Amino acid sequence: RYLLVMRDVTGRKQAETQVEELTRQLAQTQAQLREAGMALASLISPADAGILEQIARHIPGVIYEFRVDADGSFHFPYASGRLQEIFGITREEAQQNPNCLFQYLHPEDCDRVFQSILASAQHLTPWYCEYRLCLPDGRLRWLRGDSTPQRQPDGSTVWHGYVRDNTESKAAEIALKTSENRFRTIVENLNDIVYIVNPDSTFSYVSPQLKEIMGYEVAELLNQSFAKWVYPEDLPMCQNTLERSLQGEKVRGVEYRVLHQDGSYYWHSANVSGIVNDGGELVACLGIGRCIHDQKQAQIALEESNNRWQLAIEAAGDGTWDWNLKTNQIIFSRQWKAMLGYAEHEIVNLLAEWEDRAHPEDKAQCYADFTKHFRGETSTYRNEHRLRCKDGSYKWILDRGQVVEWDEESEPMRFIGTHCDI
Questions:
Q1: pTM for this structure?
Q2: Three-state SS across 225-267?
Q3: pLDDT of 201-224, one tens digit each?
């Protein structure tokens, strides 16, 4: 996987090209003068020098000549006017004491900078280096230097080059790397699979958890359509989910089956949303999926068991109820309602439906028996009470039930039971 950042650097490249041409001409002129035994300063007129300085002022960096003599001493015969702006040192100071240009080097970068200069001199290879300055006011400045060495007849080495302030670009680069590393760390430590799907249904990114969860290498899915792995009956739903996400909808809890490397289909669940580019266009789909096969199989088995249980109970003429003790929602079976003379739609799934119909003289004992069972004093709940029918008459009901689910604090959550007309 590659993460790329593109930036328009046309202006900078034009300036660098101008600098390279200028330094090339300067080096060529100096070489010719040395052969003639003449100094550059003796031939450059004040007008020409002024033109050179005007050009240098419009270049976003420092043009310089750096010389290392055969005995190891070094100096800066020339540096353009932006030297003080970037290094905080005047040209006169640099020419009098060239060491001052290195005194602010970041301690961690000193050896690397000097070694790069020595390597460039030894092999006469272009010098390129990014390094930091610790300025006296406490600021940290990133610089980027480029120059070309030339060996002189007297054994010295001269570099003609260019140094510019790279702080802003470096800060953006570091921020991007930090953000990417943080994102990668989060993604790689999730128990879920993170993926990006293009509008044509092909994967452009899949997180490393794919191998652990599904058994495939990431490369096996990249640039391939998800249709290859989705269970045929679930494919239309998955394609619809992709289309909805590309229209800006956030889709939660989509359940589907996918083919694992072992040849079997497993249930997965995913949250899906669109990815927007800088222009505000929805260009891809981001998904976070997890394998829910064990939970789904248990859910299917429970539903099948409940259906069989309810069918058996209703075949015997009894009604059933399923009470969520946290929400007080009760699901009354069709037979429970019919026992009291009501149609399916005439009773809603709320505790109030039972409370309104329970005989006032019987309610207290019902709740007392509920409480005993909730406290664990009885293995099952059992109570006989009267319920009012649709025609106003009362029927005696044998009510039996049991708590089947508890929360993390061992409080009852789900209470199911039956109604029998006695």
A1: 0.45
A2: EHHHCECHHHHHHHHHHHHHHCCCCCEEEEEEEEECCCCCEEE
A3: 999 999 888 998 999 999 999 999
